[in-house]
Structures
1.
Amino acid sequence: MSHAGTIEIKNLNKQYDVKGKPLKVLDNVSLSIKPGEFVSIVGSSGCGKSTLLRLLIGLESGYEGEILLDGKRIQGTSLDRGIVFQEHRLFPWLTVEQNVGLGLLNAPGTQAAKDKSVQEHIALVGLKGFEKAYPYQLSGGMSQRVAIARALVNRPEVLLLDEPFGALDALTRSHLQQELQRIWQAEGITAILVTHDVEEAVFLGDRIVVMQPRPGRIKRIVDVPLARTRDRGSYEFAAIKDDVLSEFSHHTHSESVNTPQALAA
């Protein structure tokens, strides 16, 4: 089992330069995430949730405030943070095991140990028997399983997920949400999910961070005190989902954000 990281975000501000003028995208964001916690982040278009995730992975820089992992400032990408994007980004000329093995390209250890970890994580995501398959031979859901295995193969402290199931059909998405919960519990690591799907956020999250846009700020944090595995049809589940959706029902911008499908990155 991997070590679970502690995330501390303190007074985070981020802006871009657009046509010579500053555009603030994150405003005084502070958030503490405990080891092993699963945090879902939702918000309407322009709220900065994907920018926040890129800052956590180290793909963005030039911010004010602090982003700490286990008390140390995040600087650039690192093996201690794994990332899964909406598109699986597999290399079509590599097999499943070769694509997963890319996650260990710069990792220490013997080749035998790396090969063992690759096989363990292929089994973890339910793809045993597909080790020699190529991406064109896989469904979209299977390809995302490969991407998850690749993100986890070096046993990171934190798993970051940027709308990982947004491009999948509803049935596949629901199934993979259950599988992600199982994998997260098996690995015991900290997970942060950015999603436009409020039901997904409630199903997976211990807490839901609701963000509001222009500039992006944390509007509210909603606890999800439901036992796992969660029953989507229960009154308690529906009550939390409706509570989160209510934060968007009186949105003042022209876009409609009062349904999970309308919440954008």
2.
Amino acid sequence: MHFHIDHISIKGCLYSESLQRQVDFRIVAPATFWKNPEKFPVLLMNDGQDFEKMNLEKTLATTFATEGIKPFIYVGISAGNRLQEYGTACCSDFKGRGARAKNYNQFILKEMIPFLKKEFNASHEKADWVFCGMSLGGLNAFDIAFNNPDYFDKIGVFSGSFWWRKKPYVKGDNEDRSRIVLDMVKNGAYNPHLDFWFQCGSLDEKADRNNNGIIDSIDDTLDLVKELQAKGYSFPGDITYVQIEGGRHDLPTWGRAFPEFLRWAFGQ
């Protein structure tokens, strides 16, 4: 009997002591996964519940079969209370959102990653780990990976919620240092192994709080890029920025961008 397996897909759950709840996850791996003794690189993704709406099964299967892409495992982690568990671990935003981001941080570092290394042949090398997310999940992925560089090598953010701030925006505040990620990078350490991939859509939103003719999501992302450059990261080089004309703040846009992101993350 002749047959062919494109990929392996597994759905499961893990009880988290840090979050005091069950966390659902999905793992997608190349067909060689069970027979390959090698440790696999890993892509962690926040908001894994959006796997189907982003058409990621087809994208991953195609990527696994693409020459020049090293084999990896995708791990989509379904969200709980996004407004409380996603955010920045250092502090909540000015409305008290993200109060449990520190708990989620601990879940990822102390529970999910050790679980994957033990049960799913995941690599023990930080150079093989990528963390990505969309919107608020992207902000959270950036926060965790940037502040824990011993665990990760690359960070991917799609339409990141980098507006997340300590206090309300004040009209005319051109520096706008209340955006939490800016001082996070400024006060953080420089880790030369880290690489960053940012994506925005020209139609992510309509808001332009400082009236400079650039929508806020693009402004916020490019201001973060400048902060990373000031820290020592090169752009282009360490930092990749992709702007999709006509792209929106939605799952179809992020799904369209995903193949290019995977080539960046795992291309040889």
3.
Amino acid sequence: MNDVLVRLKEVIQSSDNIVFFGGAGVSTESGIPDFRSADGIYNMKYAYPPEMILSHSFFMQNAGEFYRFYREKLLHPHVQPNKAHYALAELERQGKLKAIVTQNVDGLHHAAGSVNVLELHGSCNRNYCMKCGAAYTVETIIESDDIPLCICGGIIKPDVVLFEEPLDESVIERSVRAIRKAEVLIVGGTSLNVYPAAGLIEYYKGNQLILINKSETPFDRYASLAIHESIGETLGKVVES
């Protein structure tokens, strides 16, 4: 184990108030494509720009086209958690990790066993009828041929934050509170270029900011440790079960 990993392990072992803030890079190691890289969803060619398809107005006006894209590109029912997800779940089990703040909507943190997960952009695993509010599983979305409809006739909408929609204020407040109180903040799998979510780390008041991302971020210069490696391999090596 190199010196950087030894230092990271020491920081983790010495703290019982860690918060993790994660982005798409946490899930790409499970095989889920990200959005903004050269090979990401936003750089693929469709009849409409992906940012348009994933907007509230497009969903309301063209739900059928939205769902064709959504099922193909955002739902990954057979994908499993990776080393990063399991390492974070283990830290929570040990009482060290107090919260996970994630920009991902795939539900893999929950699948790995984490409990206190704050999903800034919602979750594909939760769906509700826009007319009566009835809840539906992701299987309902996958199995429907076109626009999924509730038994009342209303359109079922994924509980994910689309463009033009605000983030959930209660989730934001809980995330800010957790980050502000954290002794150690580990940020992983995110370029920290997407706001308002990236701005949340500015609430961190401690002096142990750990950044784990394959590429550099605008916050590297503020970090006590900046590790440009796989987040799954990194956390997998330093977290002991």
4.
Amino acid sequence: MRLGVIGHQGYEELSDILRTLFRVAPALDIEPLLEQGLHEVAGTGARLEDPGQLDALVTLGGDGTLLRGARLIDGRNIPILGVNLGRLGFLTSCQSEDFEPALKYLASGDYVAQPRMALSARAINSEGETRKQWRALNDFVLHKGGFARVVRLNVFVDGESIGTYAADGVVISTPTGSTAYSLSAGGPVVVPTVESIIMTPISPHTLAIRSLVIPADAEITVEANETPTELLVTVDGQVGTSFVKGEKLKVGKADNPVRIVRFPGATFFERMRVKLGWGGLPDDD
């Protein structure tokens, strides 16, 4: 198995995790391929040069590292095993202490690669040309920068006008991303396997503007109406570009899903209870 490995170098556990990987890899017939930064930390192994040659990908860090891994494989049919070295780890597959058995399950094929819907987006300039395009596992956010004035966004679904959003911006998310920025902006929680697109305004200036859940095969178009300065488009909270009046952002379902490794016993609702504190107050001891 050609196993790509990427990670966040800000975690103290990283070196121990890499030592575990190289200790068990020969017996499991795993060939680790490390991104440049991890290769320098480990001091051994081959470098990850071409994601298209991988059989699986391991991400060492938190949800942000897994999101970066999803962009790295860019729609390829490669399962991602996320190892949580941080606090929340809502998307990840296991905790650091479970890394060794998780590798054994991965190598033996004893896991489920759960498909998660992804989104694709295009930034189209005033001449109708696509100047940027991306994929996202969580969300696309069109929002204002550092100024304190409201922005106005014209929103369309499949070419039909939904209206003008007077808000600080809008989050367009997948069901996977419904528990991220969209949730903190007041959006609904959507079970990840229920394919749909969630559109949530950020701090709307009209009480009637609320989140909207639309079919997964719909296309959303957002254009800047009146803005005092340029807006920003961010992709999974990590990369993006500026966005000016006259441009359009078109968002729809991506061609291929992201496959996240899941093991028996780790259900979505269990994660909701543990990670987000669902179920009210804890029981008294």
